[in-house]
Design goal:
Elements (H helix, E strand, L loop, with lengths): L1 E2 L3 E9 L7 E9 L13 H5 L14 E8 L5 E12 L2 H7 L3 H11 L16 E10 L4 H17 L5 H10 L1 E2 L6 E4 L7 E4 L12 H9 L1 H12 L3 E6 L2 H15 L7 E3 L16 E6 L12 E5 L4 E3 L13 H13 L20 H19 L7 E5 L5 E4 L1 H8 L5 H8 L1 H10 L3 E2 L3 H8 L1 H7 L3 H19 L31 H17 L10 E2 L20 H17 L2 H14 L3 H13 L6 E3 L1 H16 L9 H9 L2 E6 L2 E4 L13 H27 L7 H6 L2 H11 L5 H30 L7 H8 L1 H7 L9 H9 L5 H26 L4 H31 L19 E10 L20 E8 L2 E8 L9 E6 L3 E10 L6 E9 L3 E7 L5 H15 L8 H4 L16 H18 L26 H4 L25 H6 L1 H9 L16 E4 L15 E4 L4 H8 L9 E5 L6 E5 L7 H8 L11 H16 L1 H4 L13 H4 L14 H11 L27 E6 L14 E6 L4 H15 L12 H8 L1 H20 ...
Parallel strand pairs: 10-12, 10-13, 11-12, 19-20, 32-35, 33-34, 33-35
Antiparallel strand pairs: 1-7, 2-3, 2-6, 4-5, 5-6, 8-9, 13-14, 15-16, 17-18, 20-21, 22-23, 22-28, 23-24, 24-25, 26-27, 27-28, 29-30, 31-32, 36-37, 36-42, 37-38, 38-39, 40-41, 41-42
Helix pairs in contact: 4-5, 5-17, 6-8, 6-10, 9-10, 10-14, 10-16, 18-19, 18-20, 19-21, 20-22, 23-25, 23-26, 26-30, 26-31, 28-29, 30-31, 38-40, 44-45, 46-47, 46-50, 47-48, 47-50, 50-51, 58-61
């Protein structure tokens, strides 16, 4: 029984103490005056009686009633029922408030707003003061309070004949039952009767209609938001003008939260004076009068619900997590069915008669039932996650939050996570976790109805039925006796408050009330104490939990198969079948991504542990650790699936013996996981273990007591810890005091022993094996952070000191170890403090633990030191041995192999991908850094792939991006440091360093790589260092000497040029005569042609000895350069400026730039118009960027038009000239002189063209027939002058890709070469649009400007970067990232190729039609070079040969100063500019043309890839430096062959190509059958372009195939290794994409036949012939067969494969010496004509006679051959040579080496007189017998020979003698 009311209080208006206008509440009387012992009087009641403030009113308001709630310090709620009425103010009250009447009236009006406003009563100036009757109670019976206070007010107003004291006394002494569904009728002694019903279950809240009202006011979505906000501890504020509504709303929200109790600030009605409470930082639910809405505006983190307006406002900074799906949507739909039952029927054609909706009270219960079901679904199975830590003296229960979330599948869910972390849930666990207690509706629901709820999910009607059933129970709980007698309470009459009250409310007699109270108290004391009868039972646990939403993850769908694999692998490991286990391991590691497989692994491993120990051998240990690491890497820090918990006993069980007495446990290998440093994990584990032991504690006695009933034991075992605890709690009161004490002690010692056990376990997993790595390790594990974050009960936080200790560097190892030890000790102490305090361990025990922890840690550190020492000595058995890469001659290792894993990148092929095939990646191996390359060699980690070697490498110089990454190693799955290297040769190395590679080594690798990639000086690159022994001794000079040395060098150049004037000049190459009609001179006149104008500057003659090596760099060397050879082939002029022939030659070769004084980036010799003097060129050059003035680089053999190149114009150039012409100035200023020079220069160019020269500018195009003049073709309607802006505009628009006249042809094909052409300008200047802005050329000028828009170098750079990412993506995001084709399009690379080809084809057309073209773009060394090179390649068949292409690159790219070093970022200085592949883009264009005209090129596509690779590789010196000037400075340009001794590495890429071409046809195009002397016009639309396979192909078997020596060393296919005999072996082999090289595995037919031929010749014992000779012979024979009448299509063997329409429309010519080169060779040694240096000419000549088919074979006829030492001529040493005796030609030839093709000399046997034995002379080989010497005497001289031994000497003498006798 409990008191209905504790206090009755009368509160009236009183003056404010500080005299302000407002009043304040004053307690007039309170009963009883003494506080109750169990319930002191609540302070501050007067504030809550008038929450809006105490104010006088000008009129008498009707009485009001509301209930305020006060919460005391013990969280007890006191309900204050307040009934307020108004009485006329007393004079004193009025006097106080008369100062500010007007303001007061306004306030009063404001304060009274919302109440009834009846007519005023009393005198006009009368004011009314409020008075409040207050009832304070701890019970919540609102209606009883309303009736009781109403009765007291009625007695006062109606003047009933009842003593107020009696009524109040009765009210205070009335007692009612607490709960249990009893009812009590009470009367206060005024003829009244009230029935009080108590609820059936005390724990269920009473809501009356408050929940239904809340939903009506705010709606479903808003209430759900508030519900989630209250649960997740946000601040909620209600606003309304009605206090009762505020109370109801707060009551309703609390009712919805059941079974959780709201434990934060709860104030349904907050007085105005306390509004600052709203800015408290803690969560709250508060109601405030809407009058104060303005004060709530600035609250930033408060959710405001306006009950009157029906809105909920959530601030931006507040995120309310929604309920997890599908609960959110299910709850929403059920609520709408309850609130609006007609919604379902609204659309029916024939709706049923309207269904009666529930009453408001019933609807209230239905809404609560929906939320009750929601909680049952949310918390289903929660009891399975409770840990019973203590049972006696009081239960201590902990909730395993992570396990609950994990098993419900809601780890990621924000809402549930916050609810479980909240205070309300903590209260729920401590209140409802108790195993033995009274149960209520929620317990039944969560235990027994879950299955039904799950089944009903998809049936709304069944859900509704369940809701109604629950609602019935809730209603019955509140109203157990529906048919109660009606209340009978007197009420005041209508408008009684307006009647003038006879008197104010009287003062009651305190004595009388006190007497009544005392009487009742005495009576109560005599009665026996009322015990609350509780029916306590064991709380049902319900079914085990299930996931809230069964997510069917497709990834692990075939789970059973995966588990089988895991089980098999483990059984193989423990049976010692290591090979089988190794095969299964990759599949197991993949399977372990799934939770089921990880659980399975833990269970299987448990089976192999006996007595907490399992000793393994090294391999088994390795496998087990690897699988454990894989399991743990996916565990979050909370370990919600219990994987780490299951593995924790195992890591301390599995071990291996390292040496006698030293055992290594698995925990030392699995420490790198974040879960071990999470305090919450350890707490959950600890409580779980304690529960197990405590359960065992109470089960043992049962077993001991009755051993005979063995069959009952299983049943006993199955009892959960909660069941055991419940039983123990039931028995507890019946136990004796001693027994109770004993149990308490047993439990405490159990907890204590577990705490020691866990201190040990934690030290195992937190102390690293190698304490020197400790700092790094601990930081990674985040131990320091977590210490401070842990919600520990220890107040003194040491996290700060821990963090500091990480930063302080200690000089001593011991100190450092202690540092780690300190951190671990602190971490363990915090843990121990927390769990022991919570588990009720005594303080003495706790102190003892604190003393033990440091000792435990120290002991463990000592054990680990021995383990660490021994583990270092272990042979690393599991690692495959490192494969050494093959290196080039001269290539040296800078860093030896660092063990790494090569991970798959975005290219699918290597990893098996969608294309299938084996997963050769990831591979395990090592990365090597050499002076030339970065090389990875290794083997696939997947053992099923087999023993394949994986090689991926690229030149260091090609590195474009290097980035540090952190990745998981594919096997151990441990996060490791890695590197991401991308190269411009389209290779990508994504590597993870093995853990044995320390971070220092990884950093060293990066530094060395950077150093090699960006050397300080080009001389330190591989191209220079590889042949270090052979480099000429040029001492490195300081920079300041550059000027003088260069000048000296230049002088020597000129001085030596005079010396060589009269001498025949020996060139390196031979050329056959050119095939066009007018060659400049006959070859005999050559020596006369090379003459230099003697215009030496004064003061340049200084002693030549200043720079020895430059003596050889003569003018003749300049003449020998590629440019000069090509100019002479093209007939472009002479080297003289004032000779008699000058008039006939339009152009001349000018040596004006021989000192590189005018333009440093141009070659020394330039082609300029004959009429321009050298001194004028200096002035012309000033008009152009970089002084690159226009020079001729090619002349058309047919139309005689010339192609010129230059840099872009400066402002003062042609542009200024053209602009100035329209506004003539009186006098020419100095600044314009260069412009005039330039105009003269261009005029001279125009005049130099034969068909313009004679007409002096009146452009007649005499070379073309009149048919070409009239038609309106593509160039029609252009003015006849052809020089107007119109034509320029037209050409420009064509060049820019927009043909303004006539539709474009299909595929972007160029127009036919024969279309009619109108008159044209003599010279077109193609330049950037920006240069030519606002230019209107004068009609009399003979040139036209063509402004075009081209891309810039920086756009090439950006485009290439995107192309690189598209072709070699860095990560395997196939789904999320853009597709390859989309990335390719975004890169705009093909668009740039299209522009280049388009412009080039247009220039070709202009040249072909007889107009000259000057390409003047950017600085003249990037895009200009690309365009002029392409134009020459398309126009001149010579450049499509191997020799010609080399010449083209040497001339246009090297001599004309393309900045290879700058664009390739070769040195540190160029690092910032980045890699810009201008040359590669040109090669791509050539490749596109090659694809369209495969028969027009002598070289193969591989040749282009080879150049593409090596122009960035820095293996050769060819593509280093930015100009000839720089190359001369370094002494690179003129290295004579004479200084080479013995075999040497190739310095030039061309030399390498030549050598390789002699051995293999890899650079040769078998389809080469040039039939076209016409130009090529390729399609250039993007749709016609193909992605170059250089960008996408990869050969992982050997790495890039462009270093030919390396590609050859790979082992031969296995069929050759098989023993002969037996059954014939299959010659098939599997060729994998991306692994094998397809061209090598499956060569084309011709290569195959040539190889076969060579093999057969070898078998026959004949020396094999060169492939080229064989091929030429076959072609010649084919040609003769193909044309019996001497005509017809040549090379019929090859023509058929090319579509006919792609031939250009020129005539098919018979193959003659077309486009071949002019021979400048006057070499006296004619015999060399038969060698391969002339093999191409030999091939061409071979058509003349049939005999020539056999000529080359004879030249290679070798009767006898071998090595002999030969004495050189007078004063020369002995040298070993390879001698060949040729009986057919009757000669003895000798070569430098056996493989050499170039003859060093010939001894004609016809001249031999005798062969005699010789004697050793000075310098002869020392170790050889004297009889091995012999001499051969000829008519000219005596040759001294020495064989290796006597027999071979005799053999040689016999062979020569027999040859002589045969003759």
């Amino acid at each position: 029984m409990a008191r209905l009311a504790d206090y009755f209080v009368l509160v009236a208006f009183g003056p404010h103490p500080r005299g302000s206008g407002e009043g304040q509440g004053q307690i007039l009387q309170r009963f009883p005056e003494k506080d109750w012992e169990d319930n002191p009087f609540p302070q501050g009641i007067e504030l809550f009686c008038q929450p809006s403030g105490w104010q006088l009113c000008p009129e008498r308001n009707p009485p009001t009633f509301f209930v305020a709630v006060l919460t005391d310090i013990n969280s007890e709620r006191h309900y204050c029922a307040c009934l307020t009425f108004w009485e006329p103010a007393e004079p004193t009250q009025e006097a106080v408030c008369s100062e500010d009447a007007a303001g007061r009236e306004e306030e009063a009006a404001e304060g009274g707003s919302g109440r009834l406003s009846p007519g005023t009563s009393g005198p006009p100036g009368q004011l009314f003061a409020p008075k409040t009757l207050v009832l304070v109670s701890r019970l919540d019976h609102v209606e009883v309070f309303r009736n009781s206070l109403g009765l007291i007010y009625t007695i006062h107003v109606e003047g009933l004949n009842v003593g107020l004291e009696t009524v109040v006394g009765n009210l205070l002494t009335c007692t009612i039952p607490l709960a249990g569904g009893s009812q009590r009728t009470i009367s206060l002694g005024a003829g009244d009767r009230q029935v009080i019903q108590t609820p059936l279950t005390d724990s269920l809240p009473i809501s009356r209609c408050s929940v239904a009202l809340l939903f009506r006011q705010l709606g479903i979505t808003n209430v759900l938001s508030l519900f989630c906000a209250a649960l997740t501890e946000h601040k909620v504020l209600f606003l309304s003008r009605s206090y009762q509504r505020l109370s109801d709303a707060c009551r309703g929200l609390l009712a919805l939260l059941f079974p959780l109790r709201y434990s934060f600030t709860y104030v349904p009605i907050l007085p105005a004076q306390l509004l600052e409470v709203l800015s408290t930082p803690t969560p709250f639910i508060i109601g405030v009068n809407a009058a104060f809405q303005a004060e709530t505006q600035e609250l930033l983190d408060v959710i405001v619900a306006d009950l009157d307006g029906g809105t909920v406002t959530v601030p931006e900074c507040v995120h309310i997590p929604p309920l997890p799906e599908p609960l959110q949507s299910q709850t929403h739909s059920v609520l709408s069915m309850v609130l609006d039952p007609e919604l379902e029927l609204a659309d029916l054609a024939f709706p049923p008669p309207t269904i009666s909706s529930s009453s408001l009270k019933m609807q209230d219960k239905e809404l609560r039932a929906v939320f009750l079901r929601l909680f049952a679904q949310l918390l289903q199975g929660y009891r399975w996650c409770l840990h019973m830590v203590r049972i006696h003296p009081e239960p201590v229960i902990r909730f395993h939050k992570a396990a609950f979330l994990g098993q419900r599948g809601l780890v990621e869910d924000d809402f549930l996570m916050k609810v479980l972390e909240g205070m309300a849930f903590a209260g729920f666990v401590s209140e409802r976790g108790v195993p033995y207690r009274p149960t209520d509706l929620f317990d039944e629901l969560v235990a027994h109805e879950v299955a039904r709820m799950r089944a009903d999910e998809s049936h709304p009607q069944r859900v509704l039925r369940h809701v109604k059933e629950l609602a019935e129970q809730l209603y019955k709980n509140e109203n157990p006796y529906p048919a109660v007698a009606m209340h009978k309470v007197q009420r005041p009459g209508e408008a009684s408050h307006l009647r003038r009250a006879p008197r104010p409310f009287p003062r009651l007699d305190e004595g009388m009330v006190q007497w009544i109270v005392d009487q009742a108290t005495a009576k109560m004391q005599g009665a026996p104490p009322a015990v609350k009868a509780e029916r306590r039972t064991t709380v049902p646990s319900g079914p085990p939990m299930t996931a809230i939403l069964e997510r069917s993850s497709g990834l692990h769908g075939n789970s059973a198969r995966r588990l089988e694999v895991v089980r098999n692998c483990i059984s193989y490991v423990f049976e010692g079948k290591m090979l089988e286990a190794k095969k299964l391991l990759p599949a197991v590691l993949r399977a372990l991504k799934g939770r089921a497989a990880r659980r399975c692994l833990a269970q299987e491993l448990h089976l192999h542990v006996q007595q907490n120990r399992a000793v393994l051998d090294h391999q088994q240990f390795d496998f087990v650790v690897r699988m454990m690491n894989c399991c743990l890497q996916d565990c979050t820090s909370l370990d919600e699936h219990g994987i780490a918990a299951a593995l924790l006993p195992l890591v301390t069980a599995f071990c291996r013996k390292l040496s006698p007495g030293v055992t290594q446990f698995a925990y030392s290998c699995v420490q790198e996981h974040v879960v071990w440093s999470t305090p919450q994990f350890w707490e959950a584990m600890f409580y779980g273990d304690v529960q197990t032991h405590i359960r065992a504690l109470y089960l043992e006695p049962a077993e001991d007591r009755d051993p005979s009933q063995g069959w009952e034991e299983p049943a006993e075992e199955e009892r959960s810890a909660l069941d055991v605890a419940s039983e123990q709690r039931r028995l507890w009161p019946m136990l004796s005091r001693e027994k109770q004490q004993e149990l308490v002690q047993k439990e405490e010692s159990t907890v204590f022993s577990q705490a020691i056990h866990y201190a040990n376990r934690m030290s195992y997993l937190l102390l690293p094996l190698d304490s020197s790595k400790s700092r790094l390790l601990r930081e990674r594990a985040g131990l320091g952070d977590l210490e401070s974050a842990s919600n520990s009960l220890v107040t003194s936080s040491m996290a700060g000191s821990v963090a500091e200790s990480y930063d302080t560097e200690s000089g001593f190892e011991d100190a450092e170890t202690c540092d780690v030890a300190g951190a671990v000790v602190r971490f363990i102490n915090r843990f121990v403090d927390k769990v022991c305090t919570e588990s009720g361990v005594t303080s003495d025990h706790l102190k003892g633990l604190h003393v033990m922890v440091p000792d435990i840690v120290q002991m463990h550190i000592e054990t680990l030191e021995a383990v660490h020492r021994e583990s270092k000595r272990l042979p690393p058995i599991q690692k495959p041995k490192l494969l050494r890469p093959h290196l080039l001659p001269g290539e040296e290792c800078v860093l030896d192999g660092l063990r790494v894993y090569l991970l798959p990148d975005g290219r699918e092929e290597g990893s098996g991908g969608s294309g299938g095939g084996p997963a050769v990646l990831p591979a395990e191996g090592a990365v090597f850094l050499t002076t030339y390359r970065v090389i990875f060699t290794g083997m696939p980690t997947d053992p099923l792939v087999g023993e394949q070697v994986v090689v991926r490498s690229f030149p260091v110089a090609a590195l474009t991006k290097e980035k540090r990454i952190t990745v998981s190693t594919p096997v151990e799955q441990i996060p490791q440091d890695g590197l991401h290297l991308r190269s411009c040769t389209f290779q990508l190395l994504k590597m993870a360093f093995d853990e044995e590679v320390g971070s220092e080594n990884a950093e060293l690798f990066r530094k060395q790589l950077h150093k090699l990639r960006y050397p300080l000086d080009v001389r330190t690159t591989f191209a220079f260092t590889q042949g270090a022994a052979h480099t000429p001794g040029r001492p490195p000079r300081a920079t300041k000497d550059k000027g003088p040395s260069l000048r000296t060098l230049s002088r020597n150049l000129v001085k030596n040029a005079k010396r060589t004037m009269g001498r025949p000049h020996v060139t390196r190459k031979k050329y056959s005569p050119p095939g066009y009609e007018h060659r400049g001179q006959a070859p005999e006149d050559q020596e006369d042609e090379i003459s230099v104008s003697e215009e030496l500057e004064p003061g340049t003659l200084t002693p030549a000895s200043a720079l020895k090596p430059s003596d050889r760099m003569t003018m003749s060397s300049l003449v020998e350069r590629a440019c000069c050879r090509d100019y002479q082939r093209l007939g472009l002029g002479t080297l003289s400026s004032s000779l008699s022939r000058a008039k006939s030659e339009p152009f001349r070769i000018s040596p004006v730039n021989r000192m590189y004084a005018i333009c440093r980036s141009y070659p020394g010799l330039l082609i300029v118009p004959q009429s321009v003097q050298d001194n004028a060129l200096q002035r012309v050059s000033r008009c152009y960027r970089q002084n690159r003035f226009p020079v001729v680089c090619w002349r058309s053999g047919r139309s005689k038009a010339v192609l010129l190149r230059s840099g872009g114009l400066h402002g003062k150039g042609v542009v200024g000239l053209f602009k100035a012409q329209n506004t003539p100035s009186p006098g020419q200023s100095q600044a314009d002189s260069s412009s005039l020079e330039q105009e003269k220069y261009l005029q001279a160019v125009v005049s130099s063209m034969p068909r313009y020269a004679d007409t002096s500018g009146r452009n007649t195009l005499s070379g073309f027939s009149s048919a070409h003049m009239g038609g309106h073709g593509k160039w029609g309607s252009v003015r006849a002058s052809g020089r107007s802006g119109g034509l320029g505009g037209d050409v420009g628009s064509r060049l820019a890709g927009r043909d303004m006249r006539g539709p474009p042809q299909a595929n972007g094909a160029p127009p036919d070469s024969g279309f009619p052409r109108p008159q044209r300008a003599a010279l077109y200047i193609i330049g950037d649009k920006a240069q030519f802005k606002g230019v209107r050329p004068d009609p009399l000028q003979q040139w036209a400007l063509v402004p075009i828009e081209m891309f810039e170098a920086r756009q090439v750079k950006a485009s290439f970067k995107k192309l690189l990412k598209a072709c070699v993506p860095g990560c395997q995001d196939f789904e999320s990232g853009p597709t390859f084709l989309r990335s390719l399009e975004d890169s705009e690379w093909l668009t740039q190729i299209h522009k280049l080809l388009h412009v080039s084809v247009m220039v070709v057309e202009l040249l072909d039609s007889g107009s000259s073209v000057l390409v003047s773009l950017e600085d003249g060394w990037d895009i200009t070079t690309q365009v002029v090179s392409l134009v020459q390649l398309l126009s001149d068949p010579f450049y499509r040969t191997l020799e010609g292409f080399r010449l083209l690159v040497e001339k246009e790219w090297l001599s004309f100063g393309h900045r290879f070093s700058h664009r390739g970022a070769h040195t540190l200085a160029g690092q910032s500019s980045g890699f810009t592949p201008v040359f590669l883009q040109f090669l791509d264009c050539v490749h596109q043309v090659h694809l369209q005209f495969p028969m027009e090129f002598e070289f193969s596509p591989f040749y282009l890839k080879f150049l593409g690779y090596h122009h960035v590789s820095r293996r050769f010196r060819t593509f280093l430096l930015d100009s000839d000037y720089e190359r001369i400075e370094l002494g690179l340009l003129y290295e004579e062959k004479g200084e080479r001794k013995g075999p040497q590495t190739c310095r030039s890429v061309w030399e390498y190509v030549d050598r390789l071409s002699k051995r293999t046809p890899v650079f040769y195009n078998y389809m080469y059958a040039p039939e076209d002397t016409e130009v090529l016009r390729p399609y250039s639309n993007v749709s016609n372009l193909k992605v170059w396979d250089f960008y996408t192909e990869e050969t992982l078997a050997q790495g890039p195939p462009y270093d030919w020596e390396l590609a050859q060393v790979s082992p031969e296919p296995p069929e050759e290794e098989r023993p002969d005999g037996g059954a014939p072996q299959s010659r098939r082999r599997v060729v994998w994409p991306c692994y094998d090289s397809r061209p090598r595995a499956q060569p084309d037919a011709i290569s195959r036949l040539l190889e076969e031929l060579q093999r057969l010749e070898t078998e026959l014992g004949r020396p094999p012939e060169r492939w080229k000779d064989n091929w030429d012979r076959v072609k010649a024979a084919q040609r003769l067969e193909g044309r019996p009448d001497g005509r017809g299509t040549p090379s019929s063997l090859l023509v058929s494969s090319v579509p006919h329409h792609r031939r250009s429309l020129g005539v098919y010519l018979q193959e003659g010496p077309v486009g071949s080169t002019l021979s400048l060779s006057l070499d006296s040694d004619q015999s060399s004509g038969s060698t391969t240096s002339g093999s191409r000419q030999a091939a061409r000549r071979s058509t003349s006679t049939l005999y020539s088919q056999f000529q080359t074979a004879e030249s290679e006829n070798r009767s006898y051959e071998g090595t002999l030492y030969k004495k050189g001529a007078f004063m020369k040493p002995w040298k070993a040579r390879w001698f060949v005796l040729d009986k057919t030609k009757h000669q003895l030839r000798y070569y430098d080496h056996r493989v050499d093709t170039e003859i060093k000399g010939v001894i004609d046997l016809a001249e031999v007189e005798a062969v005699v034995s010789g004697t050793p002379t000075m310098g002869a080989p020392k170790t050889v017998d004297e009889k091995a010497f012999f001499d051969v005497k000829t008519t000219r001289r005596v040759y001294n020979f020495c064989a290796q031994d006597v027999p071979s000497a005799q053999q040689w003498v016999d062979q020569i003698q027999s040859c002589l006798s045969d003759a």
